[in-house]
Records
---
Amino acid sequence: MTQKIGFVGLGAMGRPMSKNIIGKGNYELIVYDVVDRAVEELVAHGAKAAASAAEVAENSDVIITMLPNSPDVEAAVLGPGGVLEGMRPGSTLIDMSTIDPATTRKVAAAVQAKGCSMLDAPVGRSTANAEDGTLLIMAGGEEDVFEACKPILSCMGSDLVHCGPIGSGEIVKIVNNMLTGIIVTANAEALTLGVKAGVKLETLLQVLRSTAANNGHLHATYPVKALKGDFSPGFAVRLAYKDMNLALSLGGQLSVPLSVAASSTQLFNMARGLGHDNHDYTSVISVVEECAGVKVRID
Ligand code: NAD
């Protein structure tokens, strides 16, 4: 039987993820975004348009949300015209946004009170992985809900990890993005120092990639983005800054000191001040370049 899927939030990630649902499964898709153009693009791919998130939910067995941050999820699910208004008992909400786990638990309580179920299922990897359906999906929620949602999650991701009860997917995702943000800023400082001191960038990359200083961003993000002078996202500075702050907030709630993360967060904040809010997060290197008076670029 054809399953009815709803998708709310058709941005850099939601757009390719929802296209994969149409492309890969026996699903009917109904979509909503506050930006009309994003909806029109999905309609051209075979989705139906809804006039609100509530209308998406009225017509769906499973509703997926892919929104920037906690207030956006609260507005789109709990707010007027939101998902909750339209959800039918027995339906499932999968929130794939990266948000505060406390908001996830608040939304889940409201969803469950309506006789529905919920998973938090934020994603790892990049927009390119969203396009080819190879995201890493970190899910929190009841095991049986996770099992029931596996076929739809498999349209979007190649690696599905059940992390624990509701909110656990968000916790794992926040920890991951805190570490990756720290690595991105550490690379910016290390590479700028080496170049300013007179060594060729290619030599630095060759050595750093073959010692314990090696990390994925020296291979996959920096060389194809900021080091080539390409600041297009990718993963935007504004989202990296948001995720660093989610980590700092969680650390504050739990009395876990995050001094290195706090310092990295301020470099992202400086990048925002230099106009990089919507640029790829590797553009954080611009802050260090600006201070050092050099450009760190692959020839
Ligand atoms: P985005 O800003 O490109 O897209 C968000 C979309 O949500 C936009 O189209 C916006 O119009 C829509 N929206 C906002 N409020 C809405 C509402 N109330 N109702 C309906 N639509 C609404 O963000 P993105 O890059 O797609 O990221 C989405 C989530 O995925 C974020 O939490 C982000 O941290 C996470 N993420 C992003 C990446 C990446 O590489 N971009 C990777 C992994 C995870």
---
Amino acid sequence: MEDAKIWEEVLKEAKKHCSDEVVSTWIKPLKIVEVRGDLITLQAPNRFYKGWVEEKYMDTMRKIFNEGLSIDADVRIVVAEGKKRTPAAVEEVQPNGVTEQPYYSNNTGLNRENTFENFVAGSSNQFSHAACLAVSEGHFQMYNPLFIYGGVGLGKTHLMQAAGNRILERFPKMKVLYITSETFTNEMINSLRSKKMDEFRNKYRNIDMLLFDDVQFLAGKQRSTEEFFHTFNTLYDMHKQIILTSDKTPGEIPEMEERLISRFAWGLIADIQTPTAEEKTAIMMKRADMMNLRLPEEVALFIAENIKTENIRELIGALVRLSAYASFHNEPLSIDLARKSLDRFLVKKDRMVTQDDIIKAVTEYFNVKLADLKSKKRTRSVSVPRQLSMYLLRDKLSMSLQEVGDLFGGRDHSTVLHAVQTIEKKVRDDKEIQSIVESIEKTLYS
Ligand code: ADP
Ligand code: MG
């Protein structure tokens, strides 16, 4: 059996032993490097995955290979080349300092919607997602502090809160506190003013898990940095979990104090990258589901591919806007509706160019009439501009094959598909068509 096939079987088998969440977070990122005699070598994306899988799922992995697949060999895990991080201490410590009362009723600062269940994990956030899940198992100290960094609106707050919410689900009496560095600063200033610093310190130093959001805003603020430094040390020394987020890596935050930068690197640093179009689509589909909205996948994909922003908050905003527009006009969600309602949120080429612009540019270039393009005429002087228009409408506006067919005298979608594919091929290897497309694009975008 080839490795890819074996791996497919492994994943299938894994589902019998572990939850979907465990399979997709911990097992899927592994790869088979080698199956040789009595040893199977798997590769983990980095030391963090390796440590965690070795700690928690080695018996399961052996069982999968030995019993499930009847491959009688031992399993070992190596780390992908060039990705070796400082080893995290793999040492189990149960969370301590648990208080009497369930903590949820108190003010945790958490939004309960920010759960792992509501989060779409994908390649862009895989590492941070896995790290937050690991921390949520309650073995604080293993990855302490956990530092998550990434651009605005990419899910940092959601993920850190998901860890907090999961901890409270599993250990309801634990004290979890979410705070942004700005609120921390403001509270500190108020406490200083009203001479209630003891109260302030007690609040932050008597918790089991601190979720400290947007730590970059501490930079340059000496007094808050000082106060945070002591809070950090107190919690750290008591083996309490700290999760931090920032828009940059610790070292990249300007004016951040050295002693904090070095502490941030004690645990695990995980990134979130910008989402791919597939991930954006999946996030919108999930959101639509949460909003009880019937969103066709092709509409989600259209928005994902054409929206200007990488910010997921804005992506969700676009979906809300589309949904409001649809219910106002009493129309189902469609690509056309998305194009109309989201006009200014879409990338420039889609915003600027309309169906009419394309038809006009093509008919003027070839000096033909639209009526001819719609007609049954099949001479080259008509069929080439017709095919080109179809291609451009698909390429620039992502119109559906049917929409394009309707526009050209009710041609069926296979005719349109053929035309589009013909031009696509020529755009790659026919110099003449290339230059025609280029000059039409020039008229469209200038
Ligand atoms: P950040 O803190 O990085 O600026 P947030 O965590 O506030 O970003 O995320 C912005 C919005 O996008 C939130 O509504 C969040 O729920 C949503 N979101 C971000 N990433 C995802 C994801 N992977 N799956 C589902 N929703 C997401
Ligand atoms: Mg945030």
